[in-house]
Structure formats: C-alpha cells, structure tokens
TrEMBL record, chain A:
Organism: Micromonospora wenchangensis
Residues reported in the UniProt entry to bind L-glutamine: 49, 228, 230, 257, 260, 298, 300-301
EC assignment: 6.3.5.5
Reaction equation(s) it catalyzes: hydrogencarbonate + L-glutamine + 2 ATP + H2O = carbamoyl phosphate + L-glutamate + 2 ADP + phosphate + 2 H(+); L-glutamine + H2O = L-glutamate + NH4(+)
Domain of life per record: Bacteria
Family under the similarity heading: Belongs to the CarA family.
Protein name in UniProt: Carbamoyl phosphate synthase small chain
Class of this enzyme: ligase
PROSITE patterns to which the protein is assigned, alphabetical: GATASE_TYPE_1
Known pathway: Amino-acid biosynthesis; L-arginine biosynthesis; carbamoyl phosphate from bicarbonate: step 1/1; Pyrimidine metabolism; UMP biosynthesis via de novo pathway; (S)-dihydroorotate from bicarbonate: step 1/3
Domain Carbamoyl-phosphate synthase small subunit N-terminal span(s) in chain numbering: 5-135
HAMAP family for the chain: CPSase_S_chain (MF_01209)
UniProt key word ATP-binding: yes
UniProtKB/TrEMBL annotation, chain B:
Keyword DNA damage recorded: no
Keywords: Glycosyltransferase, Transcription, Transcription regulation, Transferase
Gene Ontology terms, MF aspect: uracil phosphoribosyltransferase activity
CDD domains, A to Z: PRTases_typeI
Name of the protein: Bifunctional protein PyrR
Family: Belongs to the purine/pyrimidine phosphoribosyltransferase family. PyrR subfamily.
Catalytic activity: UMP + diphosphate = 5-phospho-alpha-D-ribose 1-diphosphate + uracil
Cited HAMAP family: PyrR (MF_01219)
SUPFAM superfamilies to which the protein is assigned, alphabetical: PRTase-like (SSF53271)
Pfam families reported in the protein's UniProt record: Pribosyltran
GO biological process, one term: regulation of DNA-templated transcription
Motif (PRPP-binding): 112-124
Amino acid sequence: MVKRRSAILVLEDGRTFHGESYGSVGETFGEAVFNTGMTGYQETLTDPSYHRQVVVQTAPHIGNTGVNTEDDESDRIWVAGYVVRDPARIGSNWRATGGLEDRLGVEGVVGIAGVDTRALTRHLRERGAMRVGISSVEDDPRALLERVRQSPQMVGADLSAEVSTAAPYVVEAEGEHRYTVAALDLGIKRNVPRRLAARGVTTHVLPAGSTIDDLLATGADAVFFSPGPGDPATADGPVALAREVLSRRIPLFGICFGSQILGRALGFGTYKLGYGHRGINQPVLDRATGKVEVTSHNHGFAVAWPGHGDGPAGAVVPDQVIDTEFGGVRVSHVCLNDNVVEGLRAVDVPAFTVQYHPEAAAGPHDADYLFDRFAELIEGRGPDGQPGAGRNHSEGRTNA
Amino acid sequence: MACPPAAHPSPERQPSVKVILASADVQRVVDRIAHQILEKTQGAADTVLLGIPTRGAPLARRLAARISTFEDVDVPVGVLDITLYRDDLRRHATRAVGPTQLPPGGIDGKRVVLVDDVLFSGRTVRAALDALNDVGRPASVQLAVLVDRGHRELPIRADYVGKNIPTALAESVKVTLVETDGADEVRLCGGTR
C-alpha cells in the first residue's frame, strides 16, 4: 500500500489534530460538524445540506461498503472536507461499484484519516461548531490557522442558490398520478421526490429563485420547501415566497431548511444551535400522537419558539397555540435530547413542516408517514386527518 | 495461577491459552477508557486516579498520560495498597505490604477513580473502599478495570470496563503489562475450550 501523505486538521480555536491524507490531496475549509450515523456515508457525502461543511464521522470505520451508483442523494459530493478515524482498506458490498477513497479523489474532496474523532467530536460538542481547515500540503498549523480564521462563517451564509438546480425538472409519479407538487429546490435530496412519487405525486423541482408564478405555472396542488444548507436568516426570497403560498392557502410542506423558512414566514426567529443535530438516531416526540420516532437529522439551525428562548434551555409548553399573521401555529414535534423545535403545524392554513428528515436516506423510516400526511393535506383533509384546513385550501385554490 | 505464554504451542492435554487482547488492543482499550473518563467526569475536573497494586498502578499512570494527551488535563495519580484490608488476610500467607501514595492534593472532596486490571469476585475493590476510608473522604468513587471477568461475590460493578470476558470459574485471566511484565497482553487460561 502506498504510504499516505501526512495531513493536519486545525480548528478555529487553534486545536490541531494530525493524521494522514484521505481522498484528494490539497487544502479545504468549512464549518466542522460531526455526524453520528454508523451507516449511510454515501448519502451523507452527497447531501447538499452539507455544502461548505467539513463532516467528522464519529463511526470509526468508514468506507466498508464502498460506493455505488444508486445511493447518491444528488449528482455530486457536497461536503467541503471529510474526517474519518479508520478508513476501510477494502470496500466490499454486492452493490458496490467502486471504493470510497477513489470517489473522493475523483471529486476532489480533501479528507483526513487517522484522526482521534472521539476527541475531536467532544471538542466540538463542548465548544460548538466552528470553522476548520484540513491540509495535506501545509505542514505549519499556525499558517493554516491564519487561513481558517479568514474563511467564511456559516452564520449569514446564503447558500441556496449554490446548491439549487439550474433548470426545472420533473419526477413523475409511480403508478397512477394523483397530485402535482411544486418543490422549491434549496438543496433537495433525491429521496424526497422518490417518497412523493411512491404516493402518486408528480414533483416539479424548481430552482431556488423561482417566483410564485413559476410555482403556480406547474399546476401544482401543493408546494414543498426542501432541505438545504446555510443560514435561514438570509433566505429572504424563499421566505417571501412561503408567505405568498400561505396567503393563497396552498398546502405547504417543508423539511429541515424548508421548516425554518416556514418558521420565518410565520414570523418566528431562527437561531444557530451549539453543535447541531446530525445523525440517524435522534429521538423526536410527535406531540399529536405521543409517539416517539427515531429520526434522521441534519440541521445546524432551528426555529426559535416564543418563550423558548434562544436555546434549548426552556421547554416548549404543550398545546400552546401562538397566533400569527396566518392564524394559530403549534409545535408538533420536539427533539427529546434537547427540546429543540422539530416540527410546526399551522391550525388555520394547510401547512406543516418538520425539522428532521422523514425521507431518511440515510436513516430509519419511522417518520415516513409524514408523506402520507402531506398527501392527506393535499386531498383536503387537515394535518391531523381532520377536515377543516383542507376545505379552506380548496377555496384558496380556486382563487389562485 | 500459572498461565504459560500463548506464544508456546501448547501440546494436547495442556490447559488451553487464548490471547484475548494483544498489545495494540490493550492500548486501544486504555485509550477508550481515558475517553470515557473524560466524558463521564466532564473533563476530569477534580478527579484523582488511584491504582491498586500491582498492575492497577501502571494502568492508572497510563490513563492519566492518555487524558493529558487528549485534552491537556493533568489528572493526579496515586497508588492505594489494599493488602491489609483483604478479608482473606487470616487465611492466606499475605503478600508484602506496599506503599500507599496519595497525590499532593489528597483525595478529600475529589472524585476518585480506582483502577485495577481484573474485576473478579469484587473483594479487592471492597478492600480498596475500606482502605480509602482510612485515608480520606472522596466526594465519590468510581471504578475502572481493564477486564471484567464476572463471578462477583459482592454487589460491586465497574464504571469503566476495557473488556468484558465471559469466563468459567475454572479459567483464569492473566494480564501482563510492559511496566511490570515486559509486554502488554490479556490471556485466558485453563478451561476446556
């Protein structure tokens, strides 16, 4: 085996880790975040929500199953850098079409291996997500630290346009066509239209800069706001669009970044979490049913609930309905680890969102029912399956 | 109990010897315990490591060294001799009494982590708790062991376990360390496997 080049990883606060080059040789910067998933590295790497982030895998063995042509969540690797403990020397899986390191090399993704990812993760957990640099061409940590401190911050980053599709495209329904959904691509994952298609939904995926007229021109029965990277406070365009959708009472479903967009459209704030939720075993309580789901997460920002403060310190009051410009809104889901708002449901307009990933990929399918809820919402039943909001929405649709 | 090194091919009818942890495994396990101590004690603040002779003492020093490498925290290390506190003192010829060395800051009000190589009946740890009683009043006491082989005779458990080894009572677990025996290894000897 070829001896690897030495590489260094330097955090914004000066902490340095030494390791070996993994993937492409070079230098990269981004926000250091850790992902606790023990599987699904290919989905993680190709998830646009990781744009400009350097992902630290807490699972020590990465690359065991190689890469294949089926599991990509977008058409490229999006992570800015990749940090692993112990890369597999040989990937092995019946679906594999290549090795992970080769793929990283081909796509020019700079990584580092042999790092004590446990100590690194603990550091990020105690001190919060911060900027990081990885280099296999620079030997001097101080020089790299200078460049890390000059790299852009995640707060205030408007990244939707960078990850969005350039031209609209359509994902056809499987089997009988039931509904049409216009999806605003802020960094959509392939599995979202796939989950919708399985329910007879044809999805028109539209660029991030689309207008309400573009959305309506698709003949959509409902609108979907996708997950994606960046700071929701910069997403003025999508927020204004969500307000248009709400005021026309078109059914709206948002995931992750899309959830933060809806939160802002309803007049709530958003804030950056200390170190975010990234992994595939996060417990979330569905407050409507009292059931707990184990879910896939990838978010560094969250919706600030009034009285909940800027952090997870206070608990969200159960059954509290807050009046907004678009009627009552309640928190439908909370994360049981830290009480962060994980889902919003409008009472008077047909709209609901979740902060986590019901489409999984990677992750458990506990929350798959949310796509059924969306279909029911389009059908004219409320988010709880009750009539009400849906009736209003059909009126809204005739107006539109 | 005599336990020959595994390197010698053992002819039939000799007790079997199986290497459970080789040198690199022992190091990895020590690294993990060091990480766990850091995580469970919020950065090892106000924590003292006390090794139980013979092999607990070098293990405690290794843990402190690893903690220092990981987080740049210096954890005080000491040695707690328990010979005179054993409950079988009157039944066996005792081993030589060793020194108890407490770190300069003492253990009063500190979180003490006792460190030993093998947790078996629990009687050594019980003796260590008695010994602690005579040298100070820690805020709390935890236990880290390289190997937990089961067969407890007292209600004692470890907070940090390097490796759980299910054993038969007739088997013996032998830990060797570079500091005391020249090599890092954990062997399981005897039995019928």
